[in-house]
Amino acid sequence: xxxxxxxxxxxxxxxxxxxxxxxxxxxxxxxxxxxxxxxxxxxxxxxxxxxxxxxxxxxxxxxxxxxxxxxxxxxxxxxxxxxxxxxxxxxxxxxxxxxxxxxxxxxxxxxxxxxxxxxxxxxxxxxxxxxxxxxxxxxxxxxxxxxxxxxxxxxxxxxxxxxxxxxxxxxxxxxxxxxxxxxxxxxxxxxxxxxxxxxxxxxxxxxxxxxxxxxxxxxxxxxxxxxxxxxxxxxxxxxxxxxxxxxxxxxxxxxxxxxxxxxxxxxxxxxxxxxxxxxxxxxxxxxxxxxxxxxxxxxxxxxxxxxxxxxxxxxxxxxxxxxxxxxxxxxxxxxxxxxxxxxxxxxxxxxxxxxxxxxxxxxxxxxxxxxxxxxxxxxxxxxxxxxxxxxxxxxxxxxxxxxxxxxxxxxxxxxxxxxxxxxxxxxxxxxxxxxxxxxxxxxxxxxxxxxxxxxxxxxxxxxxxxxxxxxxxxxxxxxxxxxxxxxxxxxxxxxxxxxxxxxxxxxxxxxxxxxxxxxxxxxxxxxxxxxxxxxxxxxxxxxxxxxxxxxxxxxxxxxxxxxxxxxxxxxxxxxxxxxxxxxxxxxxxxxxxxxxxxxxxxxxxxxxxxxxxxxxxxxxxxxxxxxxxxxxxxxxxxxxxxxxxxxxxxxxxxxxxxxxxxxxxxxxxxxxxxxxxxxxxxxxxxxxxxxxxxxxxxxxxxxxxxxxxxxxxxxxxxxxxxxxxxx
Amino acid sequence: xxxxxxxxxxxxxxxxxxxxxxxxxxxxxxxxxxxxxxxxxxxxxxxxxxxxxxxxxxxxxxxxxxxxxxxxxxxxxxxxxxxxxxxxxxxxxxxxxxxxxxxxxxxxxxxxxxxxxxxxxxxxxxxxxxxxxxxxxxxxxxxxxxxxx
Lengths: 727, 149
Fold this sequence. Notes:
By secondary structure, chain A is an alpha+beta fold. Chain A contains 19 helices and 30 strands.
């Protein structure tokens, strides 16, 4: 490729097309390919902070931005410790290749599991604090006064006798000083930038059409590819008749990609798609071509009573308690396959030459993308790099799976020197997902004669994500997938929020051929439905108020109880609901945050109106309350869309639903009012995540209200299968 | 061949007449602010104005745009002065990932042109764009703010 001009990342459109004949030619890149590895900003003060002579503060960000506000939150934390003037703060992404070169100086790039902030806050804050100490020392050296007499505030350093300078003026000298290790951090009580509802980066670009997503990349000489993989998972390409389409306008190449896919490369996406639609492909559908949702459900059902199961949580003897119960309550729930449906379908752009392979990709895990480039290109690490682009939605699809990166590199390898932008159609995105796993659950509760809950057995039967994507983790755990027990686990960031005298929570693992994946929330979503809907069923069987019933089991879970009490109080649980309105509750510990939700619902015939949601979150610390509000409100759109409409049905081994016409998602008319309560309890313990946790309380809170309104308990999803609609 | 006007500029492009306007705008005109989300006029990410009418350009053949005035998200602002919807979007920090917001903003701009003070019911019946991040609460607040701007 020719030398790229250096580009200002805040003004992305370079040489945008003149509106005229033919194709638009020009660059639209978030940054130039050379800049990313060789031209990180300087001078750097440690690996996290750069202060330029003009006082611009550049914070290095390893995690990805997909709408959750992580880059702004991380920059706030660094700027706080740095004592920077926020108006001068910007950011840049060091590439994964650079991270490898520097022995993982920026640590993890993974942006899933609501971990962007909660798992990096300490070392990025230390990065900010270290840079501040270096700047102070540089000023002290220049002024020849003890550093203890200097103070940094608002990107300015002051000293005795009216001495004053700015960060930019001493940055060059500071950059030559040693980087202090593990500097002390501020008490969050004294935060001025972190903890505030600061406006996020990038909003103006996003309302003017200037934000460049992966779909929008342009490079000189670039061609567009689109692809079809065997719709039956595990199947392969048998044959295809390229001659039928090679003469179509714009078509440059028709090729098989690996064993399983066929791609068309053309001047434009529309030409590539038109040719691919017309291309006769014969698939070898393999051994899974007869699998259906019904056959999968039948297999899972058998797991509900199977002898073998992996234990996720256990105390006392639940089976004995159930056998000796004065009263027994039993219910079977099920949860479907679901697709993420990121608004921006999967894509990646690759440029391969025998000397170098570069990929531009919206990714939740830059290092995962980097590994895919290495594997697909066959080149060593020093000849590969990945340039991260902000995502048009991620939700777990763009993290552990880099299938589209493999594909783009494989295509580019067949056309060395030509940048290939691989774009998936929505249809490909729907049928080649990494789906929210299927799960069934049998709940059995035991009461003594005084209606005390004496035993609980929660038997999960269904698919393991880790068995598919990180089998070594499952192997180390003797076959168990601990992630299956999110929200009901024995301990840790997904610990169960109740104490039951005799408890057994176990999992009969059944892995159908449909590839599972991480999803927004993933296993907390169904586990919260199972446990929290069943808690209401138990309360009803005991003739008790659902809140009162729960509280009796939560003595040892004060933070769960605090968020539950908070939503109960705000929704007015102890006061009668307005005429025709019914209320439901749910809570869970998820990604180390304690969350609860309360819903107000009315039901008219087959229409459910969700009037109001109250959601409480204790994430230990709140880095940006405005972003928390938005993440929490958005999580109810995601969670209620899943509840009402979303199921990927399996027929003849493949996914039936191919677009939004059969796989719907909430619109504004159906959006309930969401009131967010952020109640960070502080302390020195681990921080909680924000992007996912509250999604899990959406469905059970609404379903508990629905059951109260109608006396009917729904135990399989989505609700469209029960002819129920959201009003 | 297709001739139409995009954001006030005449364009004359050599393209199959069945090509959706979306792809002509993105690939032949070179304006990528208008997004592909579904290709079947369901999600609204591709919404542009065709002679002032909010139109889902992914299912609108370029041949039907002949002679029309097209406005895309890039053409909504007047020079450096943002449209009041864009301004309200910034003040209310509506976008999360932002991918759907070009279409959302174009749909709302038309709503406010037709109904300068829309009720919640007007919003519900007119704005049917999909947003997977779930920005609707901010969208509604920002629409009312723009209406009162």
